[in-house]
């Protein structure tokens, strides 16, 4: 009776990452998932590189405002070219070249490229379209009726803000 050679191979399989982002709620959630401590799609995994064009931008900059107000950023992705001055930004995603002026509170938001958030704004659970400029003191996500009148508000309460909507205010 001859000896047999048995080769055993083991592989750790994980399901492919896929998110349907066809609705405002799904788009908002898929972006905020990336700001989680351990996102399902780990963009920092060197074994699974992201191959894309990276626009040459300066690094994000965080400063205190002239009155000495210190900001805070936590559980947030901040892209290159962003500038945050003495504001609090939590559980959010800031795309490239976003500017957040002093005394703002931003929570659970997705700010697309070139957004400029005016001083003393309060943004909560919203997606702000590219190149939008929110006026000083704007409050979004606190008053359901007012948000639905001025912007698009999904059934679950996510608010879409566009340049055109802001221009009508």
TrEMBL record:
Domain Glucose-1-phosphate adenylyltransferase/Bifunctional protein GlmU-like C-terminal hexapeptide: 58-161
EC numbers on record: 2.7.7.27
InterPro entries according to UniProt: ADP-Glc_PPase (IPR011831), GlmU/GlgC-like_hexapep (IPR056818), Nucleotide-diphossugar_trans (IPR029044), Trimer_LpxA-like_sf (IPR011004)
Superkingdom, taxonomy of origin: Bacteria
Keywords per UniProt: Glycogen biosynthesis, Nucleotidyltransferase, Transferase
GO BP: any one term: glycogen biosynthetic process
MF terms (GO), sorted A to Z: glucose-1-phosphate adenylyltransferase activity
Gene3D superfamilies for this protein: Hexapeptide repeat proteins
Top EC class of this enzyme: transferase
Assigned protein family: Belongs to the bacterial/plant glucose-1-phosphate adenylyltransferase family.
The protein, known as: Glucose-1-phosphate adenylyltransferase
Organism for this UniProt entry: Yersinia thracica
